[in-house]
Amino acid sequence: MSTVLTRRPGLAKLRVRSGRSPLHLVCLGLVASVVLAALLAPWIAPHDPNAVDLGAALAGPSAEHPFGVDAAGRDTLSRLLLGARTSLLGPLGVVAFSTLAGVAIGTAAAWRGGWLDSLLSRATELVFAFPGMLLAVLVISVYGEGLLAPVVALGLAYLPYVSRLTRSLVLAERARPYVSAYRVQGHSALQICLRHILPNIAPVVLAQSTINFGYALMDLAGLSFLGLGVPPLTPDWGRMVFDGQTAVQHGYPLSAILPCLFVVLTVVAFNVVGERWADRVARRDR
Amino acid sequence: MPEPLLQAVDLRRSFGTVHAVDGVSFTLPEGGSLGIVGGSGSGKTTTARIVVGLEHADAGEVRVRGRARPSRARGREQRLARAREVQMVFQDPYLSLDPRTGVDQVLRETLRLHFPDRDPEPRIRELLDQVGLGTRAADALPRQLSGGQRQRVAIARALAVEPAVLVLDEAVAALDVSVQAQILNLLADIREQTPIGYLFITHDLGVVRCVTDEVIVMRHGSVVEAGATAEVLAAPQHPYTRLLLDSVPHPGWNPDRIAAARQELTSPLAQPTQHTGGRSEPT
Description:
The structure holds 2 protein chains of 2 kinds. By secondary structure, chain A is mainly α. Chain A has one domain: MetI-like fold (Orthogonal Bundle), CATH 1.10.3720. Chain A is built from 9 helices and no strands. Chain B is an alpha/beta fold. In chain B, α3 packs across α4, α4 packs across α6 and α10 packs antiparallel against α11. At the A-B interface, α6 and α7 of A face α2, β6, α3 and α6 of B. Chain A: It is a multi-pass membrane protein. Chain A: It is found in: Cell membrane. Chain A: Belongs to the binding-protein-dependent transport system permease family. Chain A: Keywords: Cell membrane, Membrane, Transmembrane, Transmembrane helix, Transport.
């Protein structure tokens, strides 16, 4: 089990030797507050994120606009808060789709084996060979802008990671005698998979999905930055960076840098939390 | 003559060029207890797995009360009927229980599957009582139990199905000696109370002596000797059986002699199925 998720020490070196790691706690807090902000955004945002006040365009931080105003005169804080919704909803869709479909495909391939395994494994390898971003750009160019198309495309691109992991976990799990015991008892394959194998492999898969969440957030922000993700007026972190480009050139970087910072912090936070979880699962006493 | 409870007819199974099971036949009478003995790699576990249906035979068939067991169960009815014919207790109680499923939950699942109309709770208590586990163990997860307790749970789980035959694949090999004795006593008690038949797979001749009426000795995938347990153990006919008996450490035991005997037996001149009753002891 411990070899399934490769340990990448990286930031984990910041941990204190004993006791709880402060980095993990900070990241956990960050994840919680970003999620909370996204949930409560309409109530806590001080301004309408799309209200244009050209008179105050590119104004610096003030009591009324704590994070300043962008080139179109929209309040940056409100846009950041509401942007958290689309910025988190997208990756959530990607992770949910890739996890559900990946687990289903991986489990079917590992359990059945034979030609089905070959077919599914080759098919997912084919998706592997295709760059995820390129796939997303392709789908968007066919279906037009909107959140759904890039989410489905990235979901497909992330699916092989989950299905490959699941397949290896299910292969290891089904070789355990308790699975044979349930088969001898007359339980159906579906029952054994749903009631026993999936709960046993779920923590590892979910930890991997948490890490995927960060990557998906980054990819979707990148697509938005390229103008390919969400429609123009929607508040979204990637889109805000795109909108703020001109302001940066004019010497007012705040409205572009803040969403960048949020993307980076959130991705790092999700990665640290996910890896910590994976480590715990790997070390767990079975 | 009544149909025997379990009958294996000329079972064969090979993995590549290795004949793991090569023409094994045996009969287990109603309520009887049959031991299959042999060293590592003698094909006894493969035979057991064919009998329970975890492995398919290349040739031959397994009959329960005269009816051939299908190699693959189709549909729910057939699956459950198959499970009620033969149940199995596995070698390692540390691996044969789902680490996330509690003891009472294990039994409840099985009872719900096989007896959906019955209230499982009284039966769970009855089963736990039968295998000597208290109600306190009922709430426990497998990791909170000792090896012996886990094996009791595994036996209770197999008994919950109310099978005709219970296959015990090295069921006490992973337990320490005092716990082994407890489990063997438990199995003997269960046999007195229920009309169940045992198929006991083991390498341990002491175990065979305790719990089986008849025994077959396997070597290289085939049966080299068969008969009543007491007779086979008292007067072994085949040199391999004698070697197995001599291999058990006892006072004055000489491992070098055993090694020499083993060498002689595996040399190309010796034919594994040949009964060489009058052969003198190797020196």
